[in-house]
Known about the structure:
Blueprint: E1 2-7, H1 19-22, H2 27-37, E2 42-47, H3 51-61, E3 67-71, H4 80-88, E4 93-97, E5 119-122, H5 127-137
Parallel strand pairs: 1-2, 1-3, 3-4, 4-5
Amino acid sequence: MKIAIINGPNLNLVGKRxxxxxxxxxxxxxxxxxxxxxxxxxxxxxxxxxxxxxxxxLQRHGYGVDGIVLNAGGYTHTxxxxxxxxxxxxxxxxxxxxxxxxxxxxxxxxxxxxxxxxGVIAGFGxxxxxxxxxxxxxxxxx
Length: 142
């Protein structure tokens, strides 16, 4: 099984930025542990602060992986283009958020991506990524 994890703006700073919201563990350390936890999954890891690069990555892997975990960061609430890219690809996409976006500022309550995604996981810290991977692995079990 092959899963792409695509992270958007400022997620490279998790572990340093707003530890009260995102925790103090680096996302790099967490993703390294996640890949070790699932040795039978071939992970593609990507992060960019650029909307176009995220779209390029969705298109690059959208027909060649079994699923995508997407944390588009702030683009979740603003990017019609990323939502269109998710709709254009074949791979199932799980939208992920480290924090509970519904317990935060009101502008974070609206996702332009959710309607294009297979599912949404939010508010479980970095473990939201593991939950998304589990959902993709067991997607056909239901």
